[in-house]
Amino acid sequence: MNLSLIDIGVVLAYLALTLFIGFWLSKRASKDLQAYFLGGNTIKWYYLGLSNASGMFDISGTMWTVTIVFVYGLKSAWIPWLWPVWNQIFVMVFLAIWMRRSNTMTGAQWITFRFGDGKGGRLSHIIVVVFAVVSVIGFIAYFVEGIGKFATTFFTWDLSTTILGLHLTSEQVYALIIIGITTIYTMKGGMYSVVSTEVLQFLIMTVACISVGIIAYNQVTPEQLSAVIPEGWTNLWPEWRLNLDWSDTFPELNDKIGADGYEMFGMLLMMMILKGIFASLAGPVPSYDMQRILSTRTPAEAAKMSGLTSLVLFIPRYLMIGGFAVLGLVYLKPELMKMGTDIDFEMVLPLAIRQFVPVGVKGLLLAGLLAAFMGTFAAFINAAPAYLVNDLYKKYLNPDASDKKLVRYSYMSSFLLVLIGVTFGLFARSLNSLTLWITSSLYGGYAAANVLKWIWWRFNGMGYFYGMLGGLVASVIVPPTVRIFVPGAIDIYMYPLVLLISMGASVLGTLLTRPEDMKTLKKFYRQTKPWGFWEPVKRAVMKEDPSFVPNKDFKRDAFNVVVGITWQMSMVVLPLYFLSGEYTSAWVSLGVFIGTTVLLKFFWYDHIKNIE
User: Fold this and answer.
1) pLDDT > 70: what percent of the chain?
2) Closest CA to 529 of 45, 110, 102
């Protein structure tokens, strides 16, 4: 892609501005660990919400989502439930409040707050640190490959070179440059820098998204789109068996649907809901999302921050995603067909940018997509060093270390983690795959133990450790074993078995070992105030303090979760219906959005305003 001087200038100006912000904020960030990793709990919740939304706006996810909208139409709105995308609603409604009440700095420190500092608590603490660090290394390795491919799609300069006898391709050199800039501003400014740059990045991305939506609306008529899509493409409601036939217009897409394994759509949706409930109730994994929650000033602001993330993210993002998908369907078939039998549908995004986005806006959009990568990457490398410095070095090796030394070691930890991740991504593709496999396995084993930690008083540190370990082992062993008997089976269908093994390990590990000390349990319950099976602890707390009011909000929270998921879904489908020319459905979606917003105002927002 040949960029104009204006577009190149916009991208370079953005990169220079992010570096300036990082160095400008370095003095505030270096005050102590609390300032470096959590911004001293002084950052306003709406800035953290915008920052969190920016961190979720990654390039690879955007390219993938454009592809699934291109292929599956409105039904693609259900497919992100695989993650699940609505875990943010559980966090918004109640988990952010529970988590922020802990007053901890990291997810691993939270584990000590929940299980104490005995053998079980320490084993659980260590396995969460391992989880966090391995996840970050895996994602960095993944980012190296993704950002290099992205950069060479748009920038045509050949930067391949040889350093210390190692030949680096242009993709790898571009990746090193962008990762280097991101690492420098994140190391220097800590959470202050991450949030400040991500707010800037979010504003850039929003302008870019709206611009793409306007271009698509002006370039594609409903008649043009209906001529190239199969019957059912604009139908949101799931069927038991997916009924999209591309034979008349784009037969290659039938092969992709078969390869994705989504034909049994009803069964897939059931598995996604099962996984989604457990994965969402487990709470955020120890990563950037959790750091935003712990950085807020109060529990109520943690909940509002999480709600704002969903409110500002989905409509702009899907304006861009839907815009590129409809432009690609109407205009890019000849370009895609030139690829022959090996069509890369993820090229829809860069091809559409090249063909339809005008000078100036193109630079803004590229700066925005670059910002999306840098924001996600920066969030990861700000979160992980806290586990090494606060949860390993300070806790086990040097409890009396000075703030200056701890911040200096945080710089070193960031650099070390990036170096390891980049090494995996650049020079060991098999190790990169292995790291991503381990990361996926860790996520697979995360749900059961992390659900029980909230809702069951008897669940202890040993149960948590064995549950995480059992889930990890099951996630590694079950998929390849099942595929021996059912070739091509996708991971979501194996989730119930992985969950059952992890849950069994959690319960057995708990019942075969002693409960945690009642003093630890009472402190956790009194401070966090969760609902669930806490009766013995509740009685003990109320005996000491008859004025204590237990949490009776389960029914309200469950109602708000259902309303919140509907609210979030309306924000996904509204721009898709609008850009598809389905204006009646778009108006219905807008009505659902307004109605659910009103319900959340009365049953959620008004309730959390008085929460401490």
Assistant:
1) 85
2) 102
Select the more confidently predicted residue: 247 or 31: 247
- Of 22-26, 342-346, 475-479, which one has max mean pLDDT? 475-479
| E strand map for 189-320 | none
Q: What is the Rg, in whole angstroms, of the alpha carbon atoms belonging to the chain?
A: 24
pLDDT tens digit sequence for 451-491: 999 999 999 999 999 998 888 888 878 888 888 888 777 77
Long-range contacts of 352-355 (CB under 8 A, 24+ apart): 352/324, 352/327, 352/328, 353/1, 353/154, 353/324, 354/1, 355/327, 355/331
CA distances from 3 to 289, 348, 359, 362, 371 (A): 35, 18, 8, 8, 18
Q: Could you tell me if residue 342 is left (phi over 0), alpha (psi between -120 and 50 degrees) or otherwise beta?
A: beta
**Tens-place pLDDT, residues 29-40:** 455 555 555 556
Q: Do residues 484 and 445 lie in contact, with contact meaning Cβ atoms separated by under 8 Å?
A: no
3-state secondary structure of 167: strand
How is residue 424 written in tokens? 């995996």
- Written as one letter, the residue type at 78 is W
Peptide bond just before 84 cis, omega within 30 deg: yes
> In angstroms, rounded to a whole number, what is the distance separating the alpha carbons of residues 358 and 207?
14
- Residue found under tokens 């929940």: 114
What would the two tokens of residue 266 be?
């009803």
Angle between helices 361-388 and 403-427 (to 10 degrees): 120
Q: Which residues contact 121 (CB under 8 A, 6 or more apart)?
A: 111, 112, 114, 115, 461, 516
Here the tokens at position 462 are 């040993």
Q: What is the mean pLDDT of residues 177-204?
A: 72
DSSP character at residue 397 = I
d(CA 550, CA 150): 51
Alpha-helix residue ranges (DSSP H) falling in 486-517 = 495-511
Write down how long the chain is: 612
